[in-house]
Amino acid sequence: MDNKRPCPLLSVAPRRGMLDDGLDVHVQYLLPGLPVTLHALIHSEDDDFWEAFGHYVSDASGVVHVSEDACLGGSYSGVEPAGLLWSMRPIAGSRTGLRFRKIDTCTPIEVHISVYDGHLNEGFQKKSSLASVVVQRWYMASGIQKVDVREKGLKGTLFIPPGPGPFPAVLDLWGGGGGLVEYRSALLASKGYVSLTLEYIGLVNADGKPYNVGSDYFEAAFTVLKQHPKVCPERVAMMGLSFGASVTLGMAAYSSVIKPRCVICINGSHIMPVNGSLSDVFDAIKKNVKNTRYDEEQRIIWRDLLLPVPEDPLKKVDMGCITCPVLLIVGEDDQNWPAKESAEDIKKMMKRAGNSHLLTVLSYPGAGHLIEPPYSPHVRASNFILQETKEKVVVLWGGQTKPHCLAQEDSWHKTLAFLEQHLYSNTAVVSRASL
């Protein structure tokens, strides 16, 4: 660079923000018309490295502004302000079958963003950057209280916003992979909702024997959440992804205890209704194991296990029993659950039952199964541990990177608007203090 020119300046705003804040990346004091590469790198808690990069050319003033200038190539292209986040992928040579998931919600994701001379596609660690900056992205805002929940046989984590409350609340259910997944609940609490994320698959008793979870487990969780002193008891929602969506629909339709104000279902199904023991549901699904398919890379496709959509009403949730607003989020390229076919049948059932006014469907072409909070890296397939045998397999989730990530961003903002409409509107007693 010319010694008389200032050193290149890389600025990113906000430097410290929430996961869904996006990015504003700006490079100044470059030579005019200079080809450069912007590179983002994350070192995950699983000790893997994820990266994204984009090729740009500085303008006549020596400036690159990512929110206005087109990326000419790399892990994304076009004018994509947050492309350096959502197009993240494991670096070359990484372990196969990786999926990015935040484990410790009390710490941020640290994103190392650098600008390099020239259009690079690899070897970033061996090059010297023109400028670098580290930004933080948090799932949990300052002041959020995180509480382990172990009462009534439950295993979960409660996130409570700061302030006196009472607040609306969300019971947050993940899918068939099991485990206690906290990051979405932490983000919901950061938006003003007491959120309880619940582990319910693969649980064991004190003696190490499998614990057969049933409706009473979810009813106990809903009751614990509703009775919390920081919660407005009449304004509790349920949110589920994958099998968690099936649980959500079953509980909303049949439970005499769970009466959610609204429900959100992400890539789930009403087929094989959850109304009693989960083991009964899993046994019914296993009867269709012959419908398992594999792609050319021998990745498992499970979407056909619930197809064709049965005509027998006893094999589906009675959607006519749903009395609260329902938001269905559908990835049309879901290769794990028949989300699209299920949504179409749900729409027909609710129309026949006269409650279609309660249904909102967001359907996204090119989106796969794992629709997560915005700017989360898309993975089309990843490793999966089978609960019964503990065998590791590779599951095809589906989705194409750009449409999937745009679906994540759009559906998240519409989810927040849906919760705002049904949990906050006309609620003078509900507090948003200190958020």
Defining traits:
435 residues; alpha/beta; Immunoglobulin-like; Rossmann fold; 6-stranded mixed sheet; 19% helix; globular; disordered C terminus
List the helices and strands and how they pair.
Elements (H helix, E strand, L loop, with lengths): L8 E5 L2 E3 L5 E5 L6 E9 L5 E9 L6 E2 L17 H4 L2 E2 L18 E9 L13 E8 L6 E5 L6 E5 L6 E7 L9 H7 L4 E5 L16 H12 L4 E11 L1 H12 L8 E4 L11 H9 L6 E2 L5 E2 L24 E6 L7 H15 L5 E6 L16 E5 L6 E5 L4 H24 L11
Parallel strand pairs: 2-9, 12-13, 12-14, 14-15, 15-18, 18-19
Antiparallel strand pairs: 1-3, 3-6, 4-5, 4-8, 5-7, 8-9, 10-11, 11-13, 16-17, 20-21
Walk me through what this model shows.
- The protein has helices at 83-86, 183-189, 215-226, 243-254, 278-286, 339-353, 401-424; strands at residues 9-13, 16-18, 24-28, 35-43, 49-57, 64-65, 89-90, 109-117, 131-138, 145-149, 156-160, 167-173, 194-198, 231-241, 263-266, 293-294, 300-301, 326-331, 359-364, 381-385, 392-396.
- The chain has 435 residues and is α/β, with parallel strands linked by helices.
- The chain folds into two domains: 9-138, Immunoglobulin-like, CATH 2.60.40.2240; 145-424, Alpha/Beta hydrolase fold, catalytic domain (Rossmann fold).
- It has an eight-stranded mixed sheet with strand order 10-11-13-12-14-15-18-19, sandwiched between helices. Strands 2-9-8-4-5-7 form a six-stranded mixed sheet. It has a three-stranded antiparallel sheet with strand order 1-3-6, with no helix packed on it.
- The longest helix has 24 residues, at 401-424.
- It is globular.
- Belongs to the C/M/P thioester hydrolase family.
- Residues 21-151 form the Acyl-CoA thioester hydrolase/bile acid-CoA amino acid N-acetyltransferase domain.
- GO terms for molecular function: fatty acyl-CoA hydrolase activity.
- The active site is at residues 242, 334, 369.
- It holds the Pfam family Bile_Hydr_Trans.
